[in-house]
Amino acid sequence: MNIEIASRQLEALGNPTRLTLYRTLVRAGRGGLPVGHVQERLDMPASTLSHHLKRLVAAGLVRQERAGTSLICHAEYPAMDALLGFLTDECCADECCAEEGRNRGDA
Questions:
Q1: Who wins on pLDDT, 90 or 7?
Q2: Residue whose C-alpha is closest to residue 76's, from 90, 94, 52, 57
């Protein structure tokens, strides 16, 4: 994942309403939730929900699909995994350098 994608996704999740919405979809599992159920769970006007869903879809964190007359929202788990990996993959990668500096007296 590149830093621009990660930045867009983190920006989208930086809004408390969108983060709550995203967590609701993550909790729903791979089957997702119809928009109407999301709206009921979050007690949110349809226009507000639509605005926030649009931002999450644009960031690649959520996808929507039609099932008959329903619009089903799904968390994009591969995108979530990639973002988490981006944040954690290099965790403490420079720690050995800091340890070496301390051992030489540089730190």
A1: 7
A2: 57
